[in-house]
Design a protein that fits this description.
single chain, 221 residues, alpha/beta, Rossmann fold, five-stranded parallel β-sheet, globular
Length: 221
């Protein structure tokens, strides 16, 4: 039984584009099967509203201000493991897909999906199912096969990209994000995104836990 009336899943929609967010609210709000409990313009607001509204499903964009969708997903599910997150984003690159999965998202759709497809995915996630299309399922297998082939035997973090491993190395020696950005010649935003991806892939709650994991594996010494 969901929190919505008559068993309808309650939804929270998180997207920083007001036109798309409002359109999605109208689209799903007209469906008898679900109830739209609220909308959030950024990841941090989504986390706060999820705690207050206790939705069954959060429909989550990935690239948002203040807090990205991957980190917002991780925080929401840490507080409410029974909730479901359906990613609905423009981004279908491997890194976005797998970072969202590792953060705990149970579904992944690309914007452009029609009303029926979005509604089916929302209901599947609300029912506890995992919904990634057959194309994505094939890419998951290919992605991890490539990782296994590219990494030397004994690599403690084969799920990380080379850039994420560089970032983790510098986290392990105690550098803050601005120092990491300067050391690697990256923008602060890129470093923040990489740090969020590292946390999601290692399934750690914060920087301190990431440092412990990295140092236990021999990094940063």
């Amino acid at each position: 039984m969901t929190a919505g009336g008559a068993g309808r899943p309650r939804l929270l929609l998180a997207d920083d584009h007001p036109v798309y967010r409002d359109g999605l609210r109208l689209l799903l709000g007209s469906a008898d099967e679900v109830e739209v409990a609220g909308t959030a313009p950024d990841g941090l607001t989504a986390v706060e509203m999820a705690a207050r509204l206790r939705p069954d499903v959060v429909v989550m964009d990935l690239r948002m201000p203040r807090l990205g969708g991957v980190e917002a997903t991780r925080r929401i599910l840490a507080a409410r493991p029974g909730a479901g997150v359906l990613v609905l984003t423009m981004h279908e690159d491997d890194e976005s897909v797998f970072a969202a999965m590792l953060a705990g998202a149970r579904g992944y759709l690309v914007k452009g999906a029609d009303r029926a497809e979005i509604l089916r995915a929302v209901l599947a996630v609300a029912a506890g199912e995992v919904i990634f299309g057959p194309v994505l399922a094939g890419r998951v297998a290919e992605y991890f096969a490539r990782i296994a082939a590219a990494r030397p035997a004994g690599d403690p973090f084969p799920q990380l990209t080379a850039r994420e491993r560089d970032v983790l190395e510098l986290i392990a020696v105690g550098l803050a994000n601005p120092a990491i950005a300067e050391r690697l010649g990256l923008s602060p935003k890129t470093v923040r995104n990489n740090v969020s991806a590292v946390f999601a892939k290692l399934q750690v709650a914060d920087r301190a836990e990431a440092i412990v994991r990295a140092r236990d594996a021999g990094l940063g010494r």
